[in-house]
Structures are given as C-alpha cells and as structure tokens.
Amino acid sequence: MSSLWxxxxxxxxxxxxxxxxxxxxxxxLIDSPKVQITYHDVDKVHSHFSTDSDLKCIEMQxxxxxxxxxxxxxxxxxxxxxxxxxxxxxxxxxxxYEKNVLHIEFEVLSSAIEYExxxxxxxxxxxxxxxxxxxxQRCNLNPESFITxxxxxxxxxxxxxxxxxxxxxxxxxxxxxxxxDVASASPRRYFFxxxxxxxxxxxxxxxxQYFASPEGRDDLYQYNQRERRTVLEVLEDFPSVQMPFxxxxxxxxxxxxxxxxxxxSQLAHxxxxxxxxxxxxxxxxxxxxxxGLCSKWLTGLDPQQGxxxxxxxxxxxxxxxxxxxxxxxxxPGTGCAPFRGFVEERAIQSRSGSIAPILxxxxxxxxxxxxxxxxxxxxxxxxxxxxxxxxxxxxxAAFSRDQPQKVYVQHKMRENSRxxxxxxxxxxxxxxAGSSTKMPSDVFSCFEEIVSKxxxxxxxxxVRWLRALERAGRYHVEAWS
Length: 481
Prior knowledge:
Blueprint: H1 2-11, H2 20-23, E1 35-40, H3 48-51, H4 55-68, E2 82-91, E3 101-108, E4 120-123, H5 129-138, E5 146-151, E6 170-171, H6 172-179, H7 189-195, H8 202-212, H9 217-225, H10 231-237, H11 245-251, E7 258-261, E8 272-278, E9 282-283, E10 289-290, H12 293-300, E11 308-314, E12 327-330, H13 337-349, E13 358-364, H14 374-380, E14 394-399, H15 409-415, H16 417-425, E15 429-435, H17 439-455, H18 459-471, E16 475-480
Helix pairs in contact: 7-8, 15-17, 16-17, 17-18
C-alpha cells in the first residue's frame, strides 16, 4: 500500500495534500503480532512439569508445547504415537561415495503400536544445541524463563489444571527446541518486512525495506530462498535487529515432522521399525554446503547414546497388499525402501500358505557404489525366494552409469514386457515409489508402451486402460522430492 500511495502521489500530489505520512504514519504500517506470551514466576510452576524425564511426561510435554504454537501443526495430532530408540545405523553405499544412504533400525518403545507395510512414520528431529543456544543469545532471550503462548486478546492464567492442560507453562528453551525451526528453514518475505521496523542501523533498515518491496523481490529470492538461508543466518546478517519474541514465535517457520517410508515388516521384526535415509548434501549457488535437518541429525546419532525419538504413524499411498495379490514393484534409489517391507512380509507369509508372485524393478547409479540392500534382493531372488522365477517372480536391477549408454528401470521393464503384461492380466497391482521428478511419469509412459505393444492397441487405448487401473485401486504411486 505504501508503494501504491507513493506512486499515486508522484502522479498527482493533490491526492495527498497533507502528505502520505499524514494519511498513515510509517510506524503504524505494521500490525500487532497475533500471539501473546505470558511469562510465569518459576516458583509457581510445579516442578513435575519441568524435571520429570519419563516417557509419559516427555509425550505430554511435546503435545503441550506443540499445541501452544500458532503454526499449522497445532491442529494436527500433537501427542506422539510412540517413541523410538535407535539400535542400528550403518551406510548402504560405498564409503567415500558422493551419495550416502543409511539403513537405520529402531526399537519401538510401545507394545501397542501396529503398522503395515507401506505405512509412513513421521519423526520430530532435534535441532543443534549450539544453534538453539546461539539463537536464544542472539535474540536476548532467557532460556530458563517459563512461558505460555496464546492468541492475542485471549486471557491466560497459570491454571490449576491437570497435566493435560495445554496452558501449563513451559521453558522458553524447550518451546524453541520443539516448535521453531531456527537453523534449517528459510523465513518468508513478511519476516523481512517486520524486521525492518526493529532495525536500528539505517543501512540495515534500507536493505530490509528494499527486500520487502516489489523491486527487491528477485534479490530477496537470490539471497534467501535460493541460498536456503536459515532464520539464524538472517538474524546474524542484520545484527541491529531486535525482534520481540512474540514476532519470532509468529514468523519463524514451525519445526515440522519429517516423513519416511517404513522399510520393514512388523511380521518380520515384531518390535522394530527400519528406515532408509538419504543424507546426500547439496551445494547452493554461492557454494554453501547444505544437508537436511533430520537426515543430518540421524547420521550423527550413535545407537549407544539411547536417544529417544518421538514418532507418529500415518497411512501413505501404498496400501498393504494381501498375499494373494500379484505385484509389480518399481522402486529406483531409496524408492526401494517400502518394497523391502513388502518382500519381508511376503517371505513370512510364504511359510504358512501360498503367495502371489512379485516382479521388482530396482535402479541406481552403480552396482558397486549404491546398490541398496543388494544381498537382501539377491537372496530372495534365488532358491525359491519370493522374487525368484520359480515362484513366478523376478528381480531386475538397472545401473544407469555402469556403461556409456544410461540404463534405467524403464529399459528393464521393456525387456520384460511380456512378463509384466501376463501378470497384469492375472490381476496384478502396480506400485511405484521414488523421486518425484521425472521418474513416475517416465514409468507410466513405459507402461503405456507395454500395454499398447502386448495388447495390440493404440497408445490412447493403453492410457485409458491404465487410468481405469488407477481408478480400480491397482496403480499406486508414492513420490518425494
């Protein structure tokens, strides 16, 4: 609006005879924060809420803190379904290789938890203690103070309520740790707009004002989003800015749970859960190394530490198949993760009854470097295993960079088009998992080719046939960026 008024004033000063500042002073262009923070006397806060470390107390603390936060997850299920303890953590890729994929095994610290193959687990990552302390110090906050956070205008008292009440005070440092992503997520444009009102150095105020303007949008994108600058890095670049904690709570991106496809079967591992985690770093345009918050944290965990990890279970887009359903699985890279659970489960089921065949197409760069779970797949593709040809199945691996001409899973699918078509005619379901870039659409196009060729119909008819397969719940895709 300020930019609009300035432009109108230049076009015709008579629009604002008393000047733009008379219409609305600059200081009033910023609204009040939407949240209000109440600080509580530490002596009035029951010690039970701050010193207990048993799982029940931790569970309630997480629920309480995340229910207080104004972010979207405050409407989600905030109480963890269970806690996990890491028992195994090793790399699946060759040491020194540019890709690093981990196989991580967790003990589930709850006997009541049940999950199915194809399900997803969400974990709440821990942030770097150094980053948390630096953020608190940079913002002149008292980490030991007890607070409650509530919408502005809503009265807040220290309640005489039970432990489930979301208004029970929490340590400020705990609130930051569990709800505010200070060292991995980039702030939004409004963060810079608000920052300028609290900048005392004139050159910082001018730069922030430029970033918040339409003219500065491209430069802000280069500085912030493309570089994936974190809230802490932005605050350190503008040292004169001292934002009130209410604004920080509202504008710092919320700490989100990270979702992973479960790569184990509960039938095979009754009290465990396995994950396949890609921790490959990337480089920003200004050559800064970045790694995902959760994957970096998991990489650094030692099973001997006994770290307790809160977890939630959700249904993904890969429903657990019955043992009588033939399967065609396509899972290049870490897309193989959920299908490891599928194969484990079917191997257990084969001991007590008949099972339908599985065709599995896997892909990676190099056979010697990133052939994830190599021994597992090969063992199940031999000696009557669930992926063996004796059982009507098959395992096919494409190594895209082991020869001059790249070979992908689609090439292996075309080589076995007759087997794929025969299994589809027997009622097989298709499951595709992996990168969300080109892979899912390329695989779908490959199925179009196969159906068209083997059924002797035009491509348009093959597309309609596959779309009908989707509507019938026999074509499932789970893709991630």
